Amino acid sequence: MKSRPDARRPGALLALLAFAALLGFASAAVATEADSPGLQPFKARYQATYRGISGGQIENGLRPGARPGQWLYETRAFPNLLGRVAVSPQAAERGVMEVTAAGVRPLSFDFNDGKSDLAKDVRFAFDWGAGRVKGVAQGKPFDLPVNLGTQDTASVQAAMIVELLAGRSPQGFTILTGSRLRDYRYWSEGRATVVTPYGQFDTVVWANQRDGSDRVVKAWHAPALGYVPVQAVQFRKGQLETQLKLVSFERL
User: How do beta strands 132-137 and 122-127 pair?
Assistant: First the structure.
């Protein structure tokens, strides 16, 4: 059976269940100008597949932080039996960010793969006064200079949402992934109607690609849900590799 080779490839399933967190699919629900401006707390869950094989589900959540303008973004994995070959049910990502009129500014980030050896964990904090970010990624400390506008994988889509609500067309973001700063190019691919397990939505489609990468990620943002993505796919060398589809959505 074709599924057996993939079942023996933990890296493939790990990439599937980390897709939302590590490739910028993390989403943020935002009110329209007719409502109270700003972010709205939410939970959204997605069915994740890798080359047509289900690996389980991913849940994204956004809630207010301890201070005005501060928000917490969390991603949790709910792997099925096959997905647990690669991903622990305790795997989680948590990002803290500030949202102001000037945009989204990440403050700290914590990725825990749910295992005791910490080999794949990532933790860092931004010091915007000094223009630096310090942390540990996969057991190695790092200290990097950062410019305003730099995002991490938990804050980047909030920044994308803010741009869309403002009627702007983002050209790209510099994103800290692990201990490396990478430049991602963004572009619009128009509008499309998408059918998901949660329903049918009219969407705007945005794609992004890291400089030098053979992978392209596309996300279908639904204005009816405050531009929360209802579907995302990753292509590698033009071939569909991973896919996320919305299965449930809740305002908190």
Answer: antiparallel
CATH number assigned to the domain comprising residue 235: 2.50.20
Total domain count, the chain: 1
The token duo for 40 is 């709205």
Question: What pTM does this model have?
Answer: 0.82
Q: Which two tokens stand for residue 62?
A: 């956004």
Q: Residue 235: which region, alpha, beta or left (left: phi > 0; alpha: psi -120 to 50)?
A: beta
pLDDT tens digits for 125-184? 999 999 999 999 988 999 999 999 999 998 987 788 777 777 788 889 999 998 999 999
Instruction: Establish if 171 belongs to a structural domain.
Output: yes
Count of Cβ atoms closer than 10 Å to residue 54 Cβ = 15
Stated as kind and residue range, the H or E segment containing 162 is: helix 156-165
Residue 187 lies in a domain: yes
Is residue 241 within 8 Å of residue 55, measured between CB atoms? Answer: no
Structure tokens at 207: 């794609």
d(CA 229, CA 38): 17
Q: Which helix (H) or strand (E) holds 235?
A: strand 228-236
Tokens of 154: 């938990």
| Maximum Cα–Cα distance across the chain | 56
Q: Is residue 119 assigned to a domain?
A: no
